[in-house]
Design brief:
about 350 residues; D-Maltodextrin-Binding Protein, domain 2; 2 domains; 10 strands; alpha/beta
Length: about 350
């Protein structure tokens, strides 16, 4: 069942980086296209309270309807997805909505299958174990399509570095020894410093440096927050920094970070890596997906249609996370503003044909 006594510990955020080595197999098994009942899975987080212009959202006053339960993972963008859906489902479709925190993926999938959770609107496929992919493929949960957001792990530099030296937009620019010296520290000598994050994440930066003959040394900050502080310090004084990070996050907008282009991730590169060779290509892009309960279409067909139609863009999430994490606005406030500014988009989510 779902409890309402404590907040999620947020372990799921770290998990999305842990199993990138099996991503190609996972994606193939799940057949995800870039286009297209346990007690420990989640807990209650309460509902939003900000008023929305009644001229935009006319309450639906139909009779009693079942509660729609939406699971959210513990980071800003995912919570914003849930709050936007919550407000629109309650005010336009007339269903009560509860948001619950994801504590673990196995429990989430069981709760979706049993109908205790109605939907999750943002799932990173690369975090899934083979058994979890098999569970989804068994048909015990419903696929609601892609969220519309493309996620990407990779190498990032501040835009001012690329503007000063356009070769730094790609990995080839970092092979230059003179460039490497600009990123050097006392600890790295004449080699450049590449700032990693949590050493427990499964990353390939050290072998990419070797396979691509890039004269940089990987140093781990130890945590996401420490890396964030280093990015803030470097960008405030316009110093050189090359770091492991990911999008969509508030830092991409706040520090105006550019994703460095690594060699294209093609089938030949993936196969060579699977055969035991060092990785020589980029981290994969990932289309975030939505899952639902199989019972939802029968219990609340209009909600199921709405959630299938529900889509946000990477730019939406970047703007939302920036407003919350960098401008200190609340998720409630930012999602209310988004709804008021995007009526033409969400009205289509309510239509049976999208």
């Amino acid at each position: 069942m779902i409890t309402d006594t404590a907040r999620s510990q947020g372990h799921y955020l770290s998990l999305r980086f842990f199993r990138l080595m099996s991503l190609c197999f996972v994606l193939a098994l799940l057949a995800v296209s870039c286009s297209g009942g346990q007690s420990d899975s989640s807990e209650s987080t309460g509902q939003s309270s900000s008023p929305i212009n009644d001229g935009l959202l006319t309450p639906n006053k139909a009779g009693p309807k079942p509660t729609i339960t939406i699971a959210v993972t513990d980071w800003t963008a995912a919570r914003a997805n849930g709050v936007i859906a919550e407000k629109l489902i309650e005010r336009r479709l007339g269903y009560p909505v509860t948001l619950v925190d994801v504590l673990d993926i196995d429990g989430l999938l069981q709760d979706l299958a049993s109908g205790e959770v109605s939907a999750v609107l943002e799932l990173w496929v690369s975090t899934l174990e083979e058994s979890e992919v098999e569970f989804i493929n068994s048909g015990r949960v419903a696929r609601l399509g892609d969220l519309g957001v493309t996620a990407k792990v990779g190498w990032f530099v501040p835009r001012y570095l690329v503007e000063a030296d356009p070769t730094l937009a790609t990995w080839e620019g970092f092979r230059n020894l003179d460039v490497a010296k600009q990123f050097a520290t006392d600890e790295t000598g004449e080699s450049g410093r590449f700032l990693g994050t949590n050493p427990d994440y499964v990353t390939f930066d050290e072998e990419l440096m070797t396979s691509l003959d890039i004269p940089f040394v990987v140093e781990y900050s130890g945590s996401d927050e420490t890396t964030r502080r280093e990015l803030a310090s470097a960008t405030s004084s316009q110093e050189p920094i090359l770091a492991y990070w990911w999008t969509p996050t508030a830092e991409i907008t706040e520090f105006d970070l550019v994703n460095v282009a690594l060699p294209e991730r093609d089938e030949a590169c993936v196969q060579a890596f699977a055969d035991g060779q060092l990785l020589r290509c980029d981290y994969p892009e990932e289309a975030l997906v939505k899952l639902g309960s199989p019972q939802l279409a029968e219990q609340a067909p209009d909600v199921e249609t709405f959630l299938r139609n529900f889509t946000l863009t990477t730019e939406d999430q970047l703007a939302i996370t920036h407003s919350v994490e960098s401008l200190d606005k609340s998720v409630d406030e930012v999602t209310t503003e988004w709804i008021e500014d995007n009526q033409d988009r969400w009205e289509t989510w309510l239509a049976a044909d999208g």
